[in-house]
Design goal:
By secondary structure, the protein is mainly alpha-helical. Helix content is 58%, strand content 5%.
Length: 508
């Protein structure tokens, strides 16, 4: 069994490294690289929405100069040492799921859980990017499982470890504490242990806040940055307080703008995230459930519903899954599968218990078919796991009809586009690229600079002139096709699409 575990974990790592080697930098990675370097070299925290831990961890290889050791000039391949940090955390997550299944359900279920976790296409789709999604899934899952263990065997050491891991989750993404408190609170209400919750949760949160503060170098910062902007909420509050003669509100705003406090930077991110969540466009409540349904392999869904037959025994796994599912559906969260990754470890564990029902020969054959379908469907998706969609989502070349943004196109297909252009030998390529990577380094030089981040920069067409005598090609990233409104123009309507490159770039 140990050799099988090593083999499957190695397969997971190799698929991840291969995908990382074949994909250009995604939209968020370019910024996260610079943020990680800045934090580590000058202790300057600029990101107003995401805590710094994942950027610090993936920034270390850059600061150590490991990117220069990669024998390639492509930015995405130079990022491989940093991407390997996220891949390593993904391997830990897969192994953690296996260990929990082994402890809770036995060897048979553990083997199924290992295969399901190692070949889960959405995990493979994001586990090689320099983002916080996979690290958050790992830390949240670990903190909840450790808390469940703490309920059964209370100890000071267990409490410290649980609080520490919760702190890592909080230092990775803002929703961590809300997800954790809600999930554990519902669990304790179910178990009628509410007193345990309130007596110990204060200690756990206290430890976690120390861990979060450590990622900020124990700095003291203001909660509201000094920046004059009449549209800012703080400015509007000041005007409101002055007009209504409410000095108490003015004093609070001024204090938050002028007095540095411990964890001030973190509390500023919490504030910004709450304001951003309220102000951004609303999404239909079923957008996230629909995305999960279309992006989750059908064999995994099948085994999951079989596993639910052991409902009572699985309550401790169902609670966090349901809590996260509901919160992601009713809050103003964009329906992107990467945000739903923390749900998948619980789904996989429940699905793995389906193996406990396997008794007859027919059931064994059915299990083998489902696992074969699952693994083959994932491998066929290589190298662009990010654009995975199950059979409900339709043919691979038409998934642009169902998905956009990081569900299919995050700027990862420059290598594929360069290869396509080399085969077509065009005289001119006009590319509207959803990404911030430097396409010139991939063989696509343009008179319009790459790497812009404003709406106009992202939507703009970049002319790339070649010496060949072939056709003129217009290429548009799927996210730009929707986000920039090109899909509404007659010359770029769906019926005029000639090809789809790298699952994410439309050719006209």
């Amino acid at each position: 069994m140990k050799l099988l575990v090593v083999f499957i974990l190695t397969a997971h790592a190799l698929l991840s490294v291969g995908s990382a080697w074949r994909e250009s930098l995604t939209y968020d990675e370019v910024y996260n690289i610079e943020e990680g370097k800045t934090i580590l070299t000058s202790r300057d925290y600029k990101d107003p929405y995401i805590p710094p831990l994942s950027k610090i961890l993936t920034g270390v290889p850059y600061v150590l100069g490991l990117d220069s050791l990669v024998p390639s000039s492509l930015p995405s391949r130079q990022a491989l040492p940093s991407r390997a940090v996220t891949i390593f955390m993904s391997v830990i997550l897969v192994y953690s799921i296996y260990r929990v299944a082994l402890t809770w359900f036995g060897e048979k279920a553990a083997g199924i859980a290992l295969i399901l976790a190692a070949f889960e296409p959405n995990l493979l789709g994001h586990n090689h990017y320099l983002t916080s999604d996979v690290p958050f899934a790992l830390f949240f899952f670990a903190s909840y499982i450790l808390y469940v263990a703490l309920l059964r065997h209370p100890s000071l050491r267990g409490g410290v470890i649980t609080g520490g891991v919760l702190g890592l989750a909080m230092a990775t993404k803002i929703p961590a504490l809300g997800y954790f408190l809600t999930s554990t609170g519902v669990l304790l209400i179910y178990k009628k242990l509410v007193s345990f919750h309130w007596q110990r949760m204060i200690v756990l949160v206290g430890i976690s806040l120390i861990i979060v503060w450590a990622t900020y170098g124990f700095r003291w910062d203001v909660i509201i940055a000094q920046r004059e902007d009449s549209l800012r909420v703080s400015q509007q509050l000041l005007r409101f307080a002055q007009e209504r003669h409410l000095p108490f509100i003015s004093d609070i705003v001024i204090f938050l703008r002028t007095k540095p406090v411990p964890l001030g930077g973190y509390m500023a991110i919490v504030k910004n995230s709450l304001i951003r969540g309220v102000s951004r466009d609303r999404h239909i409540w079923y957008s996230m459930p629909a995305t999960i349904l279309l992006k989750t392999p059908i064999p995994l869904l099948t085994l999951f519903f079989i596993g639910l037959l052991k409902r009572r025994r699985l309550v401790r796994l169902e609670i966090p899954m349901i809590v996260l599912f509901v919160l992601m559906s009713v809050t103003n969260l964009m329906p992107l599968i990467r945000y739903a990754l923390p749900i998948y470890p619980f789904v996989i564990l429940i699905a793995s218990t389906g193996a406990l029902f396997i008794k007859t020969r027919f059931q064994k054959i059915l299990l083998i078919v489902l696992l074969g379908w699952y693994v083959l469907g994932t491998i066929i998706q290589f190298p662009h796991f990010i654009s995975y969609g199950n059979e409900f989502a339709g043919p691979r070349e038409r998934r642009y009809e169902r998905f956009t943004d990081s569900n299919i196109d995050w700027g990862q297909s420059l290598i594929d586009l360069a290869s396509y252009v080399n085969n077509e030998h065009p005289t001119l390529l006009r590319l509207s690229y959803f990404g911030r990577d430097d396409a010139a380094l991939y063989g696509l030089p343009s008179t319009v600079p790459w790497g812009g981040y404003t709406f106009n920069d992202i939507c703009a067409f970049h002319p790339v002139i070649f010496a060949d005598l072939g056709p003129q090609i217009t290429a548009i990233s799927i996210s730009n096709w929707y986000g920039c409104g090109y899909n509404t123009l007659e010359r770029f309507r769906a019926s005029r699409i000639k090809d789809v490159v790298g699952d994410s770039i439309l050719i006209f």
